[in-house]
Amino acid sequence: MTAAQIKILVTGAAGQIGSELTPLLRKKFGPENVLATDIKTDIPPVLNDSGPYEKLDVTNPTRLKEIIKKYQINTIYHMSAILSATGEKKPQLAWNVNISGTHNILEASRELNLKKIFVPSSIAVFGPETPKELTPQETVLKPKTMYGVTKVAGELLCDYYVQHYRLDIRGCRYPGIISYETLPGGGTTDYAVAIFYAAIKYKKYTCFVNKNTMLPMMYMPDCLKATIDIMEADFSRFEHHSNFNIAGMSFKVEDLAAEIKKHIPEFTVDYKPDYRQEIADSWPKSVNDAAARK
Questions:
Q1: What is the rounded CA–CA span in Å between residue 172 and residue 151?
Q2: Whose C-alpha in 116, 149, 241, 270 is 20 to 30 A from the C-alpha of 233?
């Protein structure tokens, strides 16, 4: 497809990744060719003012198909999800949005013959039994969070639709994403973003995981590049589909705090681990992303 033929729908466009992915796609393919959707009503001006927007609840399959037909959509970036920390507080909501919502996307894509679908996964698919260092592409998937459970199920569901319906579905296991445009919403890796805001505004931060916590992270521009690179790769070469490990860096919280302190000497951090510590402890410290790089 040429750029003019690509008609993109982004779900969860007002989220941490969607809010930066959508403007990038509009710049690449033209504002009129990228439809932003979200269940939120408080949409950032950058989304409202730079191209079309529709309110969409992904658990509503009728509304989803109406929008796809109205805008002649042929490509979807399905970024809508309930993340790990929120998912532990509202597991039923996480299941409904992450499973039913994803199933609706896949079914609509099958029924309406869409060309290409991006469905992201997460390092949340891993659990305590998974190797902690350089976690391999193929490994034990026994998550202990509802978010992780839904992401494992999502990966398997996407594989099913590739194999049985020949849909072109791609995706990757996002690590923690570090960005500044939009605050993260309900993830276990949120501390890696919130710490910067707190340092500048208050010169102190209370962290909900301990100082030795180390998780895979990625800077937003690299996250966006990985997302688009996967979508533009030759599908015939894919040995995996919606579950590519991707990595940027790994660091302890205390190391991040020390780097910030070099710029803001009076900055201090208190550590008061909560239920998110157990989630973080179940995830890898680093992942092997050789399959995605290949």
A1: 11
A2: 149
Residue 237's pLDDT is what?
87
From 53, 71, 77, 147, active-site residue: 147
Answer yes or no: 147 catalytic.
yes
Helices (H), 97-237: 101-111, 146-165, 191-201, 220-232
If one counts every other C-beta atom within 10 angstroms of the C-beta of residue 241, the result is 22
- Residue segments in the chain with a per-residue pLDDT below the cut of 70: 1-4
Question: Counting beta carbons within 10 angstroms of the beta carbon of residue 56, is it exposed (0 to 12), middle (13 to 18) or buried (19 or more)?
Answer: buried
d(CA 103, CA 9): 16
Nearest to 118 by CA among 224, 242, 202: 242
Strand-pair partners of 53: 36
Q: Environment class of residue 54 by beta-carbon count within 10 Å: exposed (0-12), middle (13-18) or buried (19+)? A: middle
Domains and CATH numbers, the chain: 3-176+217-247+288-293 (3.40.50.720), 179-216+250-281 (no CATH)
pLDDT of residue 45: 84
Assess contact for 125 and 145: CB atoms under 8 A: no
pTM of the predicted structure, to 2 decimals: 0.95
